[in-house]
Specification:
Elements: H1 14-22, H2 28-34, H3 45-60, H4 64-70, H5 80-83, E1 87-94, E2 104-111, E3 114-119, H6 127-131, E4 136-139, H7 146-153, E5 162-165, H8 166-172, H9 179-186, H10 199-210, H11 214-229, H12 231-247
Parallel strand pairs: 1-4, 4-5
Antiparallel strand pairs: 1-2, 2-3
């Protein structure tokens, strides 16, 4: 999808990008070949040519932040298929709806071939440094909740430069609701061992742990890990469906290709 993306180029907006696709111009190479002909009308063909060359360099150098700065936030999902190996999925549990009325209890990060949970009072302070390994962050409603909460609670927290919020990605597909409702609707995700647990249960489990129940903490961590790990197949589904909606029946590369 990223090589079929032209939105980050000067003078090209959504309508022009869609028109280029309709004309059969499907990637940067084909666009560059058409620039000298004058078929592509932009503010500056020379500027577009330079940006296309810079795009190739950023892709080869593995720099998704370069694209993130040039693409609207709503289009960051286009980067995932190419940069899947450098993507972190994240979810948090808290005791309240704001950092002024609660604390972060458990955070799980899934990505780079591993899944790690951070626990308040044990190793939560290590989260910001750990996240710096990843240039792409994926959450569900994290722009409004997870990231602001973490930034308020952890002074050294700096979110990765590219953020894909699945709540709004699914809005574009006409699918609304909470994470678990979307999982059920699409038949995606695994909640073995934590079936029926919801947000209020997570608060109760933390309180039980604070009163001495290590088993409650273990269940809370399993619940949080399910919330986090399930984001990955949901994002694969969403990026595949959105790419097909935008590009039509063209063959799409595999995730990570």
């Amino acid at each position: 999808m990223i090589r079929a993306t032209f939105l980050h180029l000067p003078g090209i907006g959504p309508a022009t990008e869609a028109a280029l696709w309709q004309e059969g111009i499907r990637d940067w190479k084909e666009l560059a070949e058409q620039l000298p002909s004058g078929r592509v009308r932009t503010v500056s063909r020379e500027h577009v040519a330079r940006e296309l060359a810079a795009s190739e360099r950023a892709l080869v150098e593995g720099d998704p932040a370069w694209f993130g700065r040039r693409l609207p936030d709503s289009e960051h999902w286009r980067l995932y298929p190419h940069f899947a190996a450098r993507t972190a999925f994240l979810d948090i549990e808290t005791t309240g709806l704001s950092p002024y009325a609660g604390i972060v209890t458990v955070v799980t990060v899934h990505g780079g071939g591993s899944t790690r949970s951070f626990i308040a009072g044990e190793d939560l302070e290590e989260l910001p440094a750990y996240l710096r390994r990843f240039p792409i962050l994926v959450t569900f409603n994290g722009r409004r909740f997870d990231v602001p909460f973490l930034e308020a609670c952890l002074p050294s927290m700096v979110a990765p430069p590219v953020h894909i919020d699945l709540r709004f990605v699914f809005y574009r597909l006409g699918i609304a609701g909470g994470l678990k409702r979307i999982e059920e609707r699409l038949g995606v995700g695994d909640r073995t061992g934590v079936e029926g647990i919801h947000g209020l249960d997570a608060v109760r489990l933390w309180q039980e742990y604070r009163r001495g129940s290590r088993a409650s903490l273990e269940k809370l961590v399993r619940y949080n890990r399910a919330d986090t790990v399930n984001l990955e197949p949901l994002l694969v589904r969403a990026t595949t469906d959105l790419s097909r909606r935008l590009l039509g029946p063209w063959t799409l590369p595999a995730i990570g290709g």
